[in-house]
Structures are given as C-alpha cells and as structure tokens.
C-alpha cells in the first residue's frame, strides 16, 4: 500500500506539471485525501509518514471540515495525533461547526489525547459555533479529570454558552435548554 501511495503522490506531482484534464487531477486528489484521512482514522503511521515526507498539506479538510488531526483525536489514535502535531498540524483548527480536535477527544473520553492537545498553543476557551468550550464538553460528559486539566490550563469554568450553561453547571448536572429570561 505504501508503494502505491508513493506512486500516487508522484503521479499527482507529475500531473500538475503535465497539466492533464481537470477531471483526472480532481480524481487523484480525492483518492489521495481518502488515503490520508483513512490513515489518520485507522492509525496507519507508515502511510501518514509518506504523506508528511511528500509535503502533503496536513490541514487538508474533508467535506465536513475535519482535518486528519481531528479524525485521529476522535478515533483515539494517539500516535497519529503526536505525529501530526510534531509535523505542524494546526491543533486549533475548527470544523464546519466550530469544533476542535480537543472537543472531539473530550467527547470520546480520550484522556491522553486531550492532555496532548491541551498542551498546544490553543486558547483553552476557544468556542464552537454554539458558543461551547472544551470545558463545557468536559462538564457535560462528566469528564472530571479533563475539566480539572482544563482549569489548570487556564480555562474559565464559569464562562457561559448562549443558554447560560457553564462547565461547572454542566458538571453538576444542571443543564439549561433555553436561554435564561
């Protein structure tokens, strides 16, 4: 598979030089993206190394706006997360709903991966499009260890989403489903 991927990457580079039909280039690009995202999702470090060595854009996004780092974090692939971060992948990237790799790791209960993502330069109070923070995810899903780690990282556990929910309130089980009047 690695040999095939190397050949495919070479073909794509050659295709750009030879200026083939747009359709052929788009099909090759889509196939490469599939291999890239599957490598992240499945923990295929050898294939991921090929992409990194070839200079593939680490922050390429799938149709939902997910990056390989987001997929690896969500699927519990810690070695892939470490490799992508070391190679320069953007830990602060947001998907189409504004969620980050850290939010995905917290949602799935991936403690070690969440800790690695918390150690990046990202703002611990970064919000998604619904106004929620990683700490709110930790509170909602009763991830006390992650909530404490986020607090130690400087996260504001009293920050509220548009409905008035804070991480502390969510952790206590008090969930508002409508904005306070």
Description of the structure:
With 181 residues, this protein is an all-alpha fold. It has a domain at 1-57. It is built from ten helices and no strands. It has helices spanning 2-18, 22-42, 45-53, 68-74, 78-87, 101-108, 111-118, 134-140, 144-152, 167-171. Helix 1 packs antiparallel against helix 2 (22-42). The radius of gyration is 19 Å and the shape is elongated.
Q: What profile does the largest beta sheet have?
A: none
Q: Quick one: how many beta strands?
A: 0
Distance between the termini: 59 Å
> What fraction of residues sit in β-strands?
under 5%
Mass-distribution shape: elongated
Radius of gyration: 19 Å
Helical/strand content category: mainly alpha
Q: Mean pLDDT, rounded to whole units? A: 90
Low-confidence stretches: 14-19
H/E element string? HHHHHHHHHH
Summed up, the helix count is 10
Quaternary structure? single chain
Q: Approximately how much helix is present in the residues?
A: 55-70%
């Amino acid at each position: 598979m690695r040999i095939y991927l190397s050949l495919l990457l070479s073909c794509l580079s050659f295709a750009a030089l030879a200026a083939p039909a747009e359709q052929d280039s788009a099909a090759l690009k889509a196939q490469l993206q599939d291999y890239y995202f599957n490598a992240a999702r499945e923990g295929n470090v050898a294939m991921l190394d090929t992409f990194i060595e070839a200079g593939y854009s680490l922050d390429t996004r799938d149709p939902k706006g997910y990056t390989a780092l987001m997929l690896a974090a969500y699927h519990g692939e810690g070695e892939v997360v470490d490799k992508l971060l070391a190679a320069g992948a953007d830990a602060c990237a947001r998907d189409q709903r504004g969620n980050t790799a850290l939010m995905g790791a917290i949602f799935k209960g991936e403690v070690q991966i969440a800790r690695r993502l918390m150690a990046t330069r990202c703002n611990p109070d970064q919000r998604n499009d619904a106004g929620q923070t990683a700490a709110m995810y930790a509170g909602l899903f009763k991830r006390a260890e992650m909530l404490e780690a986020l607090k130690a990282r400087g996260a504001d556990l009293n920050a509220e989403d548009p409905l008035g929910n804070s991480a502390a309130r969510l952790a206590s089980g008090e969930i508002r489903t409508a904005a306070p009047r």
